[in-house]
Amino acid sequence: MASFYVENFGCRATQADGAAIERQFEERGLARAAAPAQSEIVVLNTCTVTAAADQDARAAIRRIRRENPGCQIVVTGCYAQRAPEEVAALPGVSRVIGNSHKHRLAEILVPSRRDAVTSIESHPGFVPLSSLTAEARREIYVSDIFAHTELLAAPVFDGIGPGSNNERTRPNLKVQDGCDNRCSFCVIPYVRGQSRSLPLEEIVDEVNALVQSGYREVVISGINLGRWGRDFDKPLRFEDVVHEILDRTNLEKLRISSVEPMDWSDELIDMMAHSSRIAKHAHVPLQSGSDRVLRGMHRKYRPWHYRENLEQIRAAMPMAAIGADVMVGFPGGSEADFEETRRLIEEMPFTYLHVFTYSSRPGTPAADLRDQVPVQTARGRNRILRDLAAEKKLAFMRGFVGKTVEAITLNVSDGKSTEALTDNYLKVRLWGQHDANQWLKARVEQVEAGALRANLSA
After folding, report:
1. Strand (E) or helix (H) holding 32
2. Residue 454 pairs with which residues in a beta bridge?
């Protein structure tokens, strides 16, 4: 039996795509290998959101070629879609399959009689890449991503979960892909295409299947999750899918991943605040607290709008986790612009931040802007915001010392304690070894190394 291994890079959406690819292979009778060195087919499911992400993919290709020279190295994902010729020219790469053809990846690599693939030209929408030889071009499967309507969907899992040690817990289900926004710094629309949604019935079926398998918390995610349902012939709202999951499944806890500021409606906030089955966790991308920089980024909200959203979320859910993505180093960003961002973050009730340094991406409008911020300046700003975020997170966590929290167990992190996660996204280390996928109540003793140290509540 042939073996495969899928290595994922980047965001939750990429990981969800990787899970769907694994499902494709398994349906064709291939066995999942434990590591790339033991596999006949290695699929690198890449990210390209930064230059560092591209470098990570190239380093992985070199490593796998060195460790397993006899395997097929297949590169897919966002880097493959953005720069297929560049990727195909890398030593060791067997095939390049962009996001436009990712949904047919297993079919391309392991064709059956029914769907035998005789050549790349047989695939709809194939666009020849003229700078490579004819032989090399046959190994590239990339076409216009904006004509792409498929959406790969399979749950991704975190930690060890119910059943056996090979199973996992807290599945992440991608219900939306692509993006119709055109933020000036972002390459994602050009490699993932237009916004498209997983049909409502498929989402309900997937969640019910996960519940029947014993999973107790499910995370729903997407590239632009709040736009779910807008692409249907009869458009639906994101609130509709949340309602349906609550009404038509017995899921104990639904966690909502990142939702853009424009999509936090009064109804969504009210649902989260009043349902014990929705995790009290709001991730609201910020990017910048400067109005001038937000306009340059082509973001569709202003700082005062963002501030009102967070204040409304905090008022409705006083103990909720509130996080954001923040970018430093956007071209033309002055010290005054950065200070506006720092001050907004300082004043807002954030419990954590993901801070990124701007990375110029070929083909995006921001790549052509003047006044690129010096690397050292951007790194310094990054450090300031990370330190501020760490202070805010520590203060939030200290507020739980002496209190009882409920958390779902993930996996045993060492021989003495079990790792768990609270409803409001705080890591807990519970004394003793406990089975995974259990909701447990624990009394917090102290904050230790970025986690709450706790004992089971009597």
Report:
1. strand 31-32
2. 430, 444
Best CA proximity match to 258, nearest among 230, 233, 284:
284
Pick the CATH number of 3-145 from 3.10.25.10, 3.40.50.12160, 3.20.20.60, 3.90.1300.10: 3.40.50.12160
Structure tokens at 390: 């760490």
Topology classification of domain 404-456? OB fold (Dihydrolipoamide Acetyltransferase, E2P) (2.40.50)
Give the bridge partners for 7, in sequence order: 44
What pLDDT was estimated at residue 95?
A: 93
DSSP conformational letter for 216: -
145-192 per-position pLDDT tens digit = 887 677 766 665 554 344 333 335 788 899 999 999 999 999 999 999
How large is the angle between the packed helices 238-248 and 200-212, nearest 10 degrees? 40
CA-nearest of 199, 212, 203, 197 to 252 is 212
**CATH for the stretch 156-398:** 3.80.30.20
Residue reference for tokens 């599945």? 171
Residue 99 · residue 78 · CB < 8 Å: yes
Which pLDDT value is given to residue 110? 87
Rounded CA-CA distance 293/287 in Å is 9
